[in-house]
Amino acid sequence: MTSPPYQGDVSIVVDPGAPKRNAGANQFVVFVLVGATCAVIDVGLMKLLGMLGLHYLIAASAGFAAGLAVNFALHTCLTFKASYSYATLVRFIGVVLVNYLITMFCVSLFQSWLDMPVFGKVISLPLVAVNGFLLSKHWVFK
Known about the structure:
Strand content: under 5%
Largest sheet: none
Mean pLDDT: 88
Low-confidence stretches: none
Radius of gyration: 22 Å
Helix content: over 70%
Distance between the termini: 59 Å
Number of helices: 4
């Protein structure tokens, strides 16, 4: 008598989609960490320039521009591992503008409803993070 062909074997069931799902989750984590890093650059430079006596609007603009430049560079090289192109930069700026409009909508809405514009800003953060990630992944850096 012969024994069944797989007697004693241990089978491992592998989900072929698991690495792809994990990669997407990891990519989102990198996206958020890059965003947090750029926020520190933005606010830090604004604070530094303000301490050096620059007008607060100039300091805020310089911080925003520096944060935006680093954001684009890090997302291009690190988050999405894409190559630079002018078209990619234009699409990136388009996403920034869309996220700005979402933010201003939330701020205005919570200002008019509850007289709490900062709460609107806080509410906008996860919305623009998810929107920015999805548009960046599927359109900007595609």
